[in-house]
Structure formats: C-alpha cells, structure tokens
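[job 4471] stage=fold_predict status=RUNNING
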Amino acid sequence: MSFSSLGLSPEILKALKDKGYNNATPIQKELIPAIFKKHDIMAGAQTGTGKTAGFVTPILQELNKKFNNRHYPKAIILVPTRELAKQVYANVEDYSKYLPIKSTALHGGINMTSQANRLKDGVDIIVSTSGRLLEHIKQKNISLLAVEYLVLDEADTILDMGFIYEVNQILNLLPQKRQNILISATLSSGVKTLSQKILYKAKLIEVDSMGTTAHNVRQFVYPVVKELKSELLSFLIGSRNYSRVLVFVRKKQEADEVAKELNLSGLKTAIIHGDKSSGTRSRALANFKNEKIRVLVATDIAARGLDIPTLKVVINYDIPHISGDYIHRIGRTGRANNKGLAITLISPNEEVALKDVERVMGKAIPREILKDYAPKIIPKAKGARNKSNEKKKTAGAFGRKKSSSAPTNKKRKTTKRDKYKSF
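[job 4471] inference complete, writing structure tokens
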C-alpha cells in the first residue's frame, strides 16, 4: 500500500519520498488511519517496523491543518532514553521539512539553558525523556496546558526503567481532552495496566509484537565457558570477518572490559553506556555508522533507540536483565527488510535466563557448538550443530597477526572479576 492512499498530504509525501520510503509497512497501514480517526491507541510492533513514521506523520498533518503561525507545545512524545529522543526528533524533523511545524528534543547530557532558549522561541512538538521534561516544567520553561497529543514510545522500556512515577506526574499536568498513543515492542501486563489508566476506548493494533522477532533475523546460541567468552567473541568477529558488529552487555564495567579485550585483539571498538557523555556517545555511534570502527559495545539502556539500517550482526555477550529486552536487542538488525544475524553467548549459569527468553519468544533458539569454547556438559537443545571440526582462524581483524586473545592450547590465566554495579 502506498502512503498516498493513506491520506497523507503532498508535503509529507514529498518528505517521505526524500527518505526513500515507498510503501507503508503493516504497522503504518494500521496506525495512520487510526490516528486520523482520533482513536486512543495501544500499538504493539517490534523495533524496525517503521512505527515512528506511523504515529508522527498523521500528528504532523493534523497540527498543520490547524496551524495559526503560533508555536507552542501541542504534542508530547515521551521516550525512555536520550538516544531514542535524538532518533525520534531527527525523524520528526525529516518528516516535517516542508511544513511550518517546529520541534525539539529534551534529554540529559545537554545544557538546560540552550534547551530553555529553544522552548522560548516556540515549538509545536517535543520529544523528551520524562525526567528532563519535568525539570523544564519545574523551571517554568514549558506549559502543557494546550497539548493535544501524548505519545509514549517504547512504553515497556519506560516501565522497566522505573519511570512510571515521572510519567504519572506528567499525566497530571496534561489536559483531560487529548489523543493518547501508547507504542510498545512488547505488550506486557505492565503495559496493558498502564494503557487502562491513560487510554479511553483504545484501539488495539498488534503487529509482530510480544514474543515475535523479524523473520529475516537468524538466531543462534553458542554455549561457552564463562572465562572464555571474550576469546570466543573475538574469534567469531575476526574469523568470520564480520565488518560491523553491535555487542550488547548487561553492565557498564563489563562493557569497558569487553571493549578493551576487543581492541587488544585488533578489532577497533568503541563503547556507549551511561557513564559516557552525550557527545562521546554520539561520536561513537557516528563512527560506527561510518565504519570507522568495527565493533560497538553497548549496555541495553544506552543502546535504546539506535537506528543503524544496514547493521547485519548483533552479538549478545550475555542475556539481558529483562527477558523482553532480548527482542529489543536483536531488533537492531534485520531492519527495513534487510537480513540480520543475532548471536548469543551463553555460559552455564545463564541457562535459566535463556529459558525465560525462549518462553517470551515462544520457541527455542538453535545452538551451535564450538568444541574449544563450549562447556564439557551442554544441555540438549533442538537444532544444535557440532562445530568441533571448524578450523580455527585468527581472532583479530582481517590480515592481522594472531592476537593474544585468540584461543590457544595453552591454559589461559584468568582473574576474578569484581561484582558490578547495575546500570
């Protein structure tokens, strides 16, 4: 179905064409008409399905119809992280390039004064994290009295990260008469409870949501001795010549250690996590997108909202704290109908967590066995393939000499790691 058949204006259609969008995705086909009909909406769709365009474009069109040359907050889009705020804001700017609508992004890591000046100049759409929006409200930099649209994007993550108290504060400051749109990759019980609180006679739109992942993403699990995880990670990236890989870890300190090991093995690597400044995170992401670095190591919270359309490989160094985050992780690849590969490294103590992930997905993930890395006793699983005869190759970057982190027959000396603080 073409976008023109959904009733979008020529200005928005032109902007979408500039972005290379031709036909609407399933979630866009459902969302756009429903928003035009003024329904409150609870929509479930996996990452990478185009849901941002699905809710932004009809809001832009409706605001443009009533535009009176005055800029004040008419739409609030709440997101859980600064990376997602930047991504959604960039999309709003792209889709509205031929309209008089103004927008801005509010999030941590940026000076409050510069954001306040932008608000003073007047904006129609605000993309914000809940905490930063409340800070501006308390400083009287913004009023929500005229807001017509409220969007909670990645509502499941907002709940998982404990931002519900801040969201409730914002809800109390909004007009009763407004259109509410709740978007989530997983329609958990918490999300459904939240929807009952803020939505009125909501229309449910569910496209590849809870427990589903893109059909074009191949998934594999590699059982591995815990102490050999970093070696296996280097081996997989180097020997298979993966050109660009996003690696997920649970902890900030572990992200630093993993990145250090990868750099030592000849794989140029950068890091993004909560202890890194906004500028550092932005540069790391830009260098990754431009292929100036080969590997990007990220914690779950810092990686929310990363949009890298041509990313082919995601490696889970460990299982996420929250089982549903697995879907978010692997949703970074296989975007825009491209093929993707998701690999998960599992040590024996993570088997229970893996079963939780598989319950969420409703299926078992195939296993591949590499004799030199796998534990001696490996739980049986359907789809396992023995790779014991696979020839070892260098763990470093293509053309480099064998690195110190590459597997050898010599017993590896290990050190006991400290307990990590949660992100």
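[job 4471] summary: Residues 3-207 form a domain with the Rossmann fold fold (CATH 3.40.50.300).
[job 4471] exit 0
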